Amino acid sequence: MLMLVWTSVATDTRVLREAEALAKAGSRVHIIGRAVPESFRPPDGITIGSAGRPPLSAGRTRRRTRPERVARWVLLSSHVARRMKEWQTAAEQLALEWAHQHGVPDVVHAHDFSALPPGHRLASQWSVPLVYDTHEYWVGRPVEGLRDPLRQRRERLLEGELGRDAAAVITVGEGVARALRQDHPCWPPITVVRNTFPSRAAPPSPAAAPGGLVYAGRLAAFRELEVVAQASLALDLPITLVGPADDSWLAGFDPGRAVVLPSEPLRAVDERLRRAGVALVTHSDRWPNHRLALPNKLFHAVSLGIPVIATDVGELGAMVREHGLGTVYRPGDPDDMARAVHDLVTDYPMHQASVARARPMLSWEQDSQALRRLYQGLADAD
């Protein structure tokens, strides 16, 4: 099986979980990613190819000047489109070379719209099934930089056209699946495989109160981090924001009393979350994709047995309330976030117990079964 993804793979937990699940089921999986670190060693049964260049911001040691940030905002959309096209061409060529050496794969699995055009061309050339695995509602995702409506319209039409030829479509939640079914009634059946995490060790014993709040994820626009910063001024609990940052956004960000830290390995983030006892799962209500999304951060916290403070937006707010995973606050309202923190602290052991009950059904053991069933169906239809 061949997977294509426009990420470095090394930190793409969804891609690695899916690849490992299929490898354990007996498939040999080759992943072609973007600028994969040479030091990365994939799990057993998985091999890696690397195409394209890393983002220009990778390894940056200084912040951009204001004129540089303005120029970046104006040119960002066209720059990203150009780099994506370059990667698609390089990844397709690398896939052809790999197939010449190892044989044509049984399936081409394209992760996200960025991998769909080369995945479609390769699957058509080899006459093998194409699986389209969209990690978000692509046409409704946040757009950073100057918007290009014509490019967005072309992408919408191209996704609809190429997705129709897929043997199967996978996405991350029922909200995104509903939107895709409505947009593309002629697409094949859509299977939901959530961004859940494998079961961990038993959650900590219920504590009387948490020690802090942690946001672990990308530090950039549309994450409600400005609201977190404002709420920090009214809270006694320490707040930590940790993750890769958009340096242009970070240059103008006032964190309030929150502490901003760079990315950490997953194990270090796990330990930081366990010590704090509460995860912040926040994003804006501005974009359709946010109203449909179920972020990795939510399932990461659940896997550790940790309650969350979440933005009351669409699918995210609904899942938190359904399973009692924590408390929610109105988007854009720091006072309501402070209220949500107070409510969580007041009934903290109760929320811990609710998360512990929900862990088995919100786990990768459940979602990986859906993935394996889909692939078994493809094999049976062959």
Automatic annotation (TrEMBL):
UniProt-recorded Gene Ontology molecular function terms: glycosyltransferase activity
UniProt keyword terms in alphabetical order: Glycosyltransferase, Transferase
Region of interest (Disordered), ranges: 42-64
Gene3D superfamilies tied to this protein: Glycogen Phosphorylase B (3.40.50.2000)
A Pfam family reported for this protein in Swiss-Prot or TrEMBL: Glyco_trans_4_4
Domain Glycosyltransferase subfamily 4-like N-terminal residue range list: 13-195
Domain of life of the organism encoding this protein: Bacteria
UniProt protein name: Glycosyl transferase family 1
